[in-house]
Specification:
Number of helices: 8
Radius of gyration: 19 Å
Shape: globular
Structural class: mainly alpha
Distance between the termini: 33 Å
Helix content: over 70%
Strand content: under 5%
Largest sheet: none
Number of strands: 0
Length: about 180
Amino acid sequence: LNLILLGYIPLFQSNLEQSRVDASISVSGAVRILVMLLVLAADISALNFWENLYENKTISKGSLFRWSTSILLLALFANRAPIFNIILATAFLYLLTFWKFKMKFKTFLSLFFLGIMVLIIFVGGFGAYRVLNTEEFHYYPEFRGFIENKNYIGLVFYTFFHYFTIGLSNLMSVFKVFP
């Protein structure tokens, strides 16, 4: 419904950043909240899928369909963060379902550090890619030094921590409004 109201698919627009902003402000907040509920629907579907697989029941094709449809719809809106949340929650649900907290501390620590590395590479890597491929960002002072010195690893870490602090700042704003 949201795509019909927009009249275009944000993912396929030439200016991805602006198309995502335009899509956000052109529909009501209620529609945006419903779209974000796709994250919850996908996580519940993943849990249902893993539980059925773990208990040797028949695989729930409906759950797999809801999970993949949620990711596809969010991708069409060019929303990276909710897709990442779905994938991360799916991985955690997999671990919780199949391992049931029976892993050794060394294995847990290894998986934890692997998860942190994947998180930095995924979030920072996509952020750095966006900075490098968006001409306007080349003139931002916070990115200019990384681009001029071709310090792409530094750019990955900078964009990761930049997004991380934005998320924390937004969370703190929510707590100010809803104590």
